[in-house]
Design goal:
- This protein has three domains: about 5-55, 434 Repressor (Amino-terminal Domain) (Orthogonal Bundle); about 70-165 and about 305-330, Response regulator (Rossmann fold), CATH 3.40.50; about 170-300, Rossmann fold (3-Layer(aba) Sandwich).
- It has helices spanning about 5-10, 15-20, 30-45, 50-55, 85-100, 115-125, 140-150, 170-180, 205-215, 230-245, 255-270, 305-320, and strands at about 70-75, 105-110, 130-135, 150-155, 165, 190, 225, 250-255, 280, 300, 325-330, 335.
- The protein contains twelve helices and twelve strands.
- The chain is elongated, with a radius of gyration of 24 Å.
- The longest helix is centred in the N-terminal third of the chain and has 16 residues, at about 85-100.
- The protein starts with a helix and ends in a 5-residue tail after the last strand.
- The chain has about 350 residues and is an alpha/beta fold.
Length: about 350
């Protein structure tokens, strides 16, 4: 196990400086460059403060007491942390299951927050029993967390060494696009986000869209494939730009309901009636999608049940089940409303 001296040696600072940084001691002025070096060394060496030693001056730890089950959660949003209805629904399902088992969620972080090494270290400085991970993390952050947390369950992550639960992204895309084709549409656009991979075309939802179009003998036009990076404002800007050209598709498949509703809004402001001049179908069936104008066609994803299933997998691991990592895919359902 790494010591504070190891961290100090790697960072090129004194042990006192390391102590001040990791304990947020503001008595002495420390440059941001020095802080960054310390946190880099802490992460690289997997340094961990002894939690009992940190608390022993204030609390006597009973030798017979059983440590509490502490379950953390990492969600996949970059802004408005608690406002994304998709991830909040998954979180509510997980929380409901945990509460019924007498547990609670110890913390909720975002993958973006954990890129800050200080936040990463402080989040996992106390023992964590298990983690529900809703985002594929960068290798450095993931490797660090993997060493701190004995049991992790992913929600649609690309981490193959842990259990994952979710839905078939490729299949839902083919379902949505096939519905548009059956409605007579041949000019179909795609709206999605590049995510952690950095390339929209690497996503399973885009691949499902592309393969369905190709199988139907329909063209995929580059200017009708929109990477809005899961930002509603950017989505509206791109749809506005497309509408101004006068050359836009007769239907859009948006890879999330939020992007689909942003598309509906942009089409409305451009005087394009839905579905008469352009149809729109989304993905996930968040609660507000049925109240859109017009009500949004979508593919239902059982988000609450995904959260519950993730907790069930986590508890199964806590009980000692050490089988190979599992991938659980829950069923989806096409919901046809007035936007198509």
């Amino acid at each position: 196990m790494s010591t504070i001296r190891d961290v100090a040696r790697l960072a090129g600072v004194s042990t006192a400086t390391v102590s001040r940084v990791v304990n947020n001691d503001a008595t002495y002025k420390i440059t941001e460059e020095t802080r960054a070096k310390v946190w880099q060394a802490v992460t690289q060496l997997n340094y961990k403060i002894n939690a009992n030693a940190r608390r022993q001056t204030a609390v006597k730890v009973s030798p017979v007491s059983k440590p509490p089950v502490r379950i953390g959660c990492v969600i996949s949003v970059t802004k408005d942390k608690y406002n994304d209805p998709y991830f909040m629904s998954i979180l509510s399902g997980a929380e409901e299951r945990l509460i019924s088992a007498g547990c609670d969620i110890a913390f909720v972080r975002t993958g973006h927050e954990l890129e800050d090494k200080k936040i990463l270290f402080n989040t996992f400085s106390e023992p964590i029993t298990g983690l529900i991970l809703m985002e594929t993390l960068n290798k450095e952050s993931y490797d660090y967390i993997r060493k701190q947390v004995p049991h992790i369950v992913g929600i649609d992550t690309h981490h193959g060494d842990i259990d994952n639960v979710g839905y078939d992204h490729y299949h839902v895309a083919t379902t949505a696009v096939q519905h548009l084709i059956e409605q007579g549409h041949e000019k179909i656009g795609f709206i999605g986000g590049s995510g952690t991979g950095g390339n929209l075309k690497d996503s399973r939802r885009y691949r499902g869209y592309y393969s369905t179009m190709h199988a139907a003998g329909l063209p995929v036009r580059e200017d009708w494939v929109i990477d809005c990076m899961w930002d509603e404002a950017l989505c509206m800007e791109e749809i506005n730009r497309l509408c101004l050209t006068g050359d836009y598709p007769t239907a859009f498949f948006a890879a999330s309901d939020l992007m689909a509703m942003a598309t509906l809004s942009a089409l409305y402001h451009n005087g394009i009636s839905v579905p008469e001049k352009a149809a729109v179908i989304g993905l996930s069936n968040i609660e507000m999608s049925r109240f859109a104008s017009p009500p949004l066609s979508t593919v239902h994803v059982p988000t609450k049940e995904i959260g519950m299933a993730a907790v069930d997998l986590l508890f199964d691991r806590l009980s000692g089940n050490a089988i190979l990592p599992r991938k659980v895919l829950l069923p989806t359902e096409l919901i046809i409303r007035h936007s198509t």
